[in-house]
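dude i think i finally got it to work??
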Amino acid sequence: MMSHERLRLGIVLFLVCVGGAFSLGVAASSREGAVAPARDPLYVAECGSCHFAYPPGLLPARSWEQMMNGLERHFGENAEVSGATGKALQSYLAANAADRAGEGKARKFLASVRPGELPERITTTRYFVNKHREIPRHFWEKNPALGSLSRCEGCHVRADQGSFDEHEVRIPGVGRWED
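look at this
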């Protein structure tokens, strides 16, 4: 009787371990198309009130620093913030930038930026351009729901979670996109 209970317990423990290992494998593979999402409440509130709160891991720290130092002319808008708020935002962006994040997509974005290069836009990095080159221009440029490739959340259904997996792309008015 005692040996049957031990056998059952052993089987249960084995199944729990196998299930846990499988779950970790699935989680790791699903992070391949991911970057740490924007989680800082101040960043999400300040920057996300005007546009998608881009994950900091999509640009190197030097690009975020340049952007924060030029908020009075932020892509045609004055987006200046107070000194303390600006310092807090710059600190968050620098600490979580592509050259500091070191995971999944952040590494790929960083690898596409030459040393000393200072991309002002995520959409001009070689990695981004390469990943979006096959999408017909009229799918996004003349699309009233998008108008620009900078609207990540318009097509990447889990962009707010940091997932830019190509299997999760839904272009408004077009549908699922696979390259």
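Strands lie at 170-171, 175-176.
im so relieved honestly
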